Amino acid sequence: MNVMLRTVMLLFGLSLASCASTQLEPDDTVVEIPMLYITDRDETGDEDPEKFYGDERGDLVYGSMTTILEAKPTGASPDDPAFWQPRAANADDIGIASLKPMALDGFQQEIETRLQGRDDKTALVFLHGYKKTFRRAAMNLAGIVYGANYQGIPVLYSWPSGGAPALYAADTTNLKWSTTHLVKALDQLAEVHGLDVIHLVAHSMGGQAVLHALENEKPPQGEGEWKLGELILYSPDVDRARFARDALPKLRAAGIRTTVYASDLDVPLWASRFANKYPRLGDAASGLLVAEGLETIDASQIAGLFTGHIYHLGQRTQDDLHYLLSERLGAAERPTLTRVEDERGVYWEILPE
């Protein structure tokens, strides 16, 4: 194994270890988060809802689930972010409590039913990043929904990630394979009666699939439009130069507000830069992309060495997401941000409380 590959493996391992060792405090609150899901993972045959879907490719399927998490109080310090992960000692008590697969028509009807009586008639479609099992992806979305107090319909789109640091190349291949299914799923969501807006939120590698779909597979607006609202990219593991050249002009022309969060201590994106040769969009250490039509958020002041890739699960970032999704406020209007202007232009920083 050459030196570069060993470095990549070490850095990814460090990132994984930091997530696994996180513990929540004794005053955590147990909450239930009902969600819907779309996945093209294989069905394992195991009836345990946490093991129902594996890491191989499968057909596009739909369903509903209930997650149970132990969440820090909303006033948790941004220096000690809540990761919304199960405690190792309490794993039987929290996680995916129930899971119900359903046919497409039943899935669409379920959304219509849940929309009834709601003021917020939006859906949040979340695409996770690499090395995420179905369970971990579900818990991440549950934490975002709870932390941001999102009142619309949360939908997990889970692609067949292998859930291991060594499978970066395989995850990249599977994500590309899954993009066609993502396009189909967005078409089907847009058909739901009463659903006004679809927000797309992607973390890390998940941003590659979202951008590919928006760039190449289907016009994001116009006939048969996807009803797109906000496009939010957390720590995007996306080629920065290619995004600026190819994706951003199309997003700008379509009138889609795009928000990118980056930090300068993003260890997995450092490793991704080694693996892919070029800087990633979410790596502020390689330089922030500040451009017309893009709202760039620098999260470096609330991210540490072990949280530089998962600061989106911390309360301060989720407070900012609340203002963005629930009140549809731009960066210049959100009280969680401060304006910065330099020779590149204007961007914003999230500051500790």
Would you write up a description of this structure?
The chain is an alpha/beta fold and 353 residues long. The chain has helices at residues 3-20, 104-115, 134-148, 168-190, 206-217, 240-254, 267-276, 315-326; strands at residues 29-43, 53-71, 95-102, 122-127, 153-158, 197-203, 228-234, 258-262, 294-298, 337-342, 345-350. It has an 11-stranded mixed sheet. Helix 1 runs antiparallel to helix 7 and helix 5 crosses helix 6. The longest helix is centred in the middle third of the chain and has 23 residues, at 168-190. It starts with a helix and ends with a strand. Mean pLDDT is 86; it is low at 1-27 and 73-92.
Brief synopsis:
The protein is of the alpha/beta class.
Per-chain topology:
Blueprint lengths: L2 H18 L8 E15 L9 E19 L23 E8 L1 H12 L6 E6 L6 H15 L4 E6 L9 H23 L6 E7 L2 H12 L10 E7 L5 H15 L3 E5 L4 H10 L17 E5 L16 H12 L10 E6 L2 E6 L3
Parallel strand pairs: 1-5, 4-5, 4-6, 6-7, 7-8, 8-9, 9-11
Antiparallel strand pairs: 1-2, 2-3, 10-11
Which percent range fits the helix content? 25-40%
**Major sheet description:** 11 strands, mixed
Following the backbone from N to C, one meets helices and strands in this order, namely: HEEEHEHEHEHEHEHEHEE
Q: Structural class, from helix and strand content?
A: alpha/beta
